[in-house]
Amino acid sequence: MTSIGRASVLIGAGTVASRLTGFVRTIVLVAALGGSATAAGNAFAVANGLPNAIYAIISTGLLAAVVVPQIVQAASHTDGGTAFISKLFTLGTVALLAVTAIAMLCAPLLVQLYATNFTPDQQALATAFAYWCLPQILFYGLYALVGESLNARNIYGPFTWAPIVNNIVSIAGFALFLVLFGPMGELIAWTPGRIALMAGTATAGIVIQALVLFLFWPRTRLRIRPDFRWRGVGLNRIGRLAGWTFLMVLLAQIAGVVQSQVLSEAAKDHPGVFVAQNAWLLYMIPYSLIVLSIGTPYFTRLSEHAAAGRHEDVRADIGRSIRTVGVFIVVATAALAVASVPAARMFTTSPATAAAFAIVLVCYLVGLIPNAIQFTIQRTFYMYNDTRTPFLFTIPQAAVVVATALVSGAVLPIEFLASGLALGQSLAAIVQLVLATWLLRRKIGPLGTRSWMRGLARFIVAAIPAAGAGWGVFLLTGGVHGWTTTGIILGAVGSVLIGSVTLIVYVAFLALLRAPELGPALQTLRRFIGR
């Protein structure tokens, strides 16, 4: 437990620094693109989202599901896994180069696929951005491959801290663009040089982020060399496992395409692709800080227990992980929901646009707790080299996402399209969690669900008055038209104030309820702050 606590602190600290610099990066980007609901902003969001979609496939699909468990098992080989990882890295690099080349050749088609309702001029600008952004695929992939390999060797820090360098590079480039050209939200005056500076900056940050990880590779004590002899070390097995993962990710990408097509109708002046991406960025703060920092070390330990056949230990770690994550994720959901308008003001240009942005964020937050639990449940299947079952419970999830997106596009006014899609995403997460938990119980036996459900219920009971207190602070500051929405800095100050009050009341009520999880949670928090 001590090693997990130290790893969680290391990952959490890196995540805090990464998210803070990422905040600044996005604020400068929004300023350079004239706001979150501009024609140029949505064009850039679509183009820069293309390599991000591929990265999601690599980082949360193939690597998380297949590669990390295989690397953990390869550590028991006589060579420490050197031969296996050499072949794996060679194959991965070749595949990444091929995917990147194909994506760049298909850039106009990809933009048209994701942004069907953009005007021809907006599609042309998005395509120009895409040619500069798509090379990120290669470096996102290398970053994920090296980073997950470091994690599998219990070297957690670099993977979490490297994005800070990316953010610093991006902040400098976007700030330079803003100084040279000012805000450019409209489609006119986007010369090749301006396009290169904007999109090239985004790609340069990803390149440097990947290269930084290679500096830490010597800690693995593995000497990797190109090896094109891909037989004999179980790569066929990886291919069979990855087949289900590929199908699962394919479903997710189909759902994402449908969502993007619906959102492209809000090409400007209303919450669209850019607003949805920035709302997701806020949503990911508690997810990455809490779920990933605590869950990732458990992931490695779960792999070890599953590989050794210690099923009781696996079940115990599942419950422990969910309760530990839950005590933090519940209050984070409450705090971010009641502070959603001031938080949104950091990414918008007026209180009115902040209020519209906040609705999208709250709709995403409905799914935060289910997604936090799903993180542990789904990765437990991966521990047993089972990628088929996650594919099966992804089918209804993707179906709900697609259905709610199409319904939203058909019945909702354009100003609520993004909110409808965000709510549909959250409903799909709930459906997926229920099905995944049932299937995992069938696979490894009782999960102690009642135990961690009682814990979550205690957390939610404490979070209700805490959220009420935070909302009261927001109203006392003037609400939507108060001082917390008058600017970016005051929006940040207001968010911290509201969140702090929510947290204090939450802890007080957990103490009144004598929640057994409160003590360990406070110890984790103190250890995190101290380090």
From TrEMBL:
Membrane spanning stretches: 27-47, 53-76, 88-111, 123-146, 158-183, 195-217, 238-260, 280-300, 321-344, 350-370, 391-414, 420-440, 456-476, 488-513
Keyword Secreted among record annotations: no
Protein known as: Murein biosynthesis integral membrane protein MurJ
InterPro entries according to UniProt: Lipid_II_flippase_MurJ/MviN, MurJ
Gene giving rise to this polypeptide: murJ
Entry GO CC: plasma membrane
Source species: Microbacterium protaetiae
Localisation: Cell membrane
GO biological process, one term: lipid translocation
